[in-house]
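Tip: read the tokens left to right.
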């Protein structure tokens, strides 16, 4: 009987899936969108991805050494942060931009708070927010879709800048944005496949949806956050008199909903809390798109709701056993 009852500290329930496996699963789900970004925008986009990922790993290692912590570059979290940062940047930014962004994301938004599991905000989004505030012109210049193998695709000449669908909508209206993409049926197709201007990895709703559904099927992420986030943008856009399909396919909604808002550390832990979190992201995204001077609001909506996550977790608690 002495071995029948043992008192141990938590956690008492374990799972075979590890942090490393989770991070690698998300990275694999993002690879198709990253490949599409290189296909649409050229080799320069590949250089941005490689620079961002390498910088994130280097800064993770240096921060671990300087702070006397166990080296954590092998858990995959820094690599995922670098990849996400690259995918939300314009594909032709100077290569020092992802280096600075990775430093802010890893050293300030992650390691300064205590490392993985202690950060309040999504590190990649903090890095992008810092870059947009510091160099707004570089972070809002978008190249047009390039023909594979062309001089601009290979990087031998500069690509011609173009507008994004949400940018055209903000300055000229929804009708002009649809006309900018071609016929209405073609507009939806371009938005769905990704052959439009925008951030490196946010344009292909098809590939992001496929990757997100794979993560849901593997139970890596909770379906509630992307479903409510995207659904609330759809409903509110329709209620405000604009094409809801255009709004859910444009911008970074699919990338944010499936791969950033679902971050374990910065989103609520309860099912009800996640519903509130996702609804807040959707409302803020629509509010920024419709009533602010910015064409897009996905990044800021997630960061704002990240700040509210501790408050949500405090008030949305499961009932204690026996009460």
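Filled-in amino acids:
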């Amino acid at each position: 009987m002495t071995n029948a009852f043992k008192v141990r500290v938590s956690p008492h329930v374990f799972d075979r899936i590890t942090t490393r496996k989770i991070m690698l699963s998300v990275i694999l789900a993002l690879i198709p969108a990253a490949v599409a970004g290189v296909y649409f925008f050229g080799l320069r986009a590949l250089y941005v991805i490689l620079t961002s990922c390498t910088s994130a790993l280097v800064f993770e290692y240096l921060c671990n050494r300087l702070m006397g912590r166990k080296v954590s570059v092998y858990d995959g979290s820094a690599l995922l942060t670098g990849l996400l940062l690259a995918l939300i940047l314009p594909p032709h930014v100077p290569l020092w931009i992802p280096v600075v962004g990775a430093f802010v994301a890893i050293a300030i938004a992650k390691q300064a708070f205590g490392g993985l599991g202690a950060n309040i905000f999504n590190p990649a989004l903090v890095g992008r927010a810092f870059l947009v505030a510091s160099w707004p012109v570089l972070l809002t210049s978008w190249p047009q879709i390039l023909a594979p193998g062309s001089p601009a695709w290979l990087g031998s000449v500069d690509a011609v800048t173009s507008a994004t669908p949400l940018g055209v909508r903000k300055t000229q209206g929804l009708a002009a944005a649809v006309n900018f993409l071609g016929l209405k049926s073609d507009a939806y197709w371009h938005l769905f496949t990704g052959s439009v201007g925008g951030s490196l990895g946010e344009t292909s709703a098809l590939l992001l949806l496929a990757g997100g559904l794979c993560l849901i099927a593997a139970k890596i992420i909770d379906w509630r956050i992307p479903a409510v986030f995207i659904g609330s943008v759809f409903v509110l856009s329709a209620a405000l008199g604009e094409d809801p399909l255009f709004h859910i396919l444009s911008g970074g909604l699919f990338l944010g909903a499936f791969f950033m808002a679902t971050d374990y550390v910065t989103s609520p832990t309860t099912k009800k809390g996640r519903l509130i979190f996702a609804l807040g992201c959707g409302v803020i995204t629509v509010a920024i798109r419709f009533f602010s001077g910015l064409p897009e609001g996905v990044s800021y909506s997630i960061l704002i709701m990240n700040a509210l996550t501790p408050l949500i977790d405090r008030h949305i608690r499961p009932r204690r056993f026996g009460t």
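The longest strand covers residues 142-143. The mean pLDDT is 90.
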